[in-house]
Amino acid sequence: MIQVKICGITNQEDAVVAAQCGAAAVGFIFYPPSPRYIKPDDAKKIISVLPDKPTKVGVFVNEKPEEINKIRDFCTLDMIQLHGDESPEYCRHFPESIIIKAVELKNNEDIKHALDYDVAAILVDSRRGNLYGGTGKKSNWELAFLLSKRKPLILSGGLNTENIADAVKTVKPAALDINSGVESSSGKKDHRKLSQIFDIIRVSDTAPKNPQLIFKKR
């Protein structure tokens, strides 16, 4: 099955259910303005009770590299997702193999800019105002498909039980990132929706038997 990351985890129950459903990764947002923000102490507690799988991803927005490394070590994160305005030069503060860079695609110039990043994968999301993600707004699938041919791509942005099948078939991403589409409220996952969306993905998935794995221990 195509790899799936459930992002915006704020509590142990949701993390455990996501793992049981088959999530390859869970994401913790360390960006205070986000409604899904989690304190490092709380994230560490959740991670301590999870099995070795799934991959633990820390999401940061325009944060200082030293602070990211501090939280990464404290919470024993496997990967770092940079979801702000970080430049290709900024990303080089970290090992390429552990970095996911989030971008919004509006035109072909955005694709060219995304290719400048030396990272493990590009995550395509949608923004709204001061919100860098988790907006529930669909990203540009056409441009995402074009980028996926040249870079490992994680598709995000308004994915839910109604459109996930089309997303998998249309974009053919290396992985999926799902957040608001499986929530009952901001920061609280709806376990029924979680189960449903994984069932749909399993039926819809046409990925090769040996796909490139983005979420893995490094």
How would you characterize this protein structure?
- Helix content is 33%, strand content 18%.
- The strands form two sheets. The protein has an eight-stranded parallel barrel, surrounded by four helices. Strands 9-10 form a two-stranded antiparallel sheet.
- The two termini are 21 Å apart.
- It is built from eight helices and ten strands.
- It has helices at 12-21, 40-49, 65-75, 88-91, 108-114, 141-148, 164-171, 191-204; strands at 3-6, 25-29, 55-60, 79-82, 99-103, 121-124, 153-155, 175-178, 183-185, 188-189.
- The protein has a single domain, classed as TIM Barrel (Alpha-Beta Barrel).
- Helix 1 links the parallel strand 1 (3-6) and strand 2 (25-29).
- The model has no long low-confidence stretch (mean pLDDT 93).
How many E-type strands? Answer: 10
| Spatial arrangement of strands, main beta sheet | 1-2-3-4-5-6-7-8
**What share of the residues does DSSP label as strand, in percent?**
15-25%
Give helix % range: 25-40%
List keywords for this structure.
single chain; 218 residues; alpha/beta; TIM Barrel; 8-stranded parallel beta barrel; two-stranded antiparallel sheet; 10 strands; 33% helix; globular
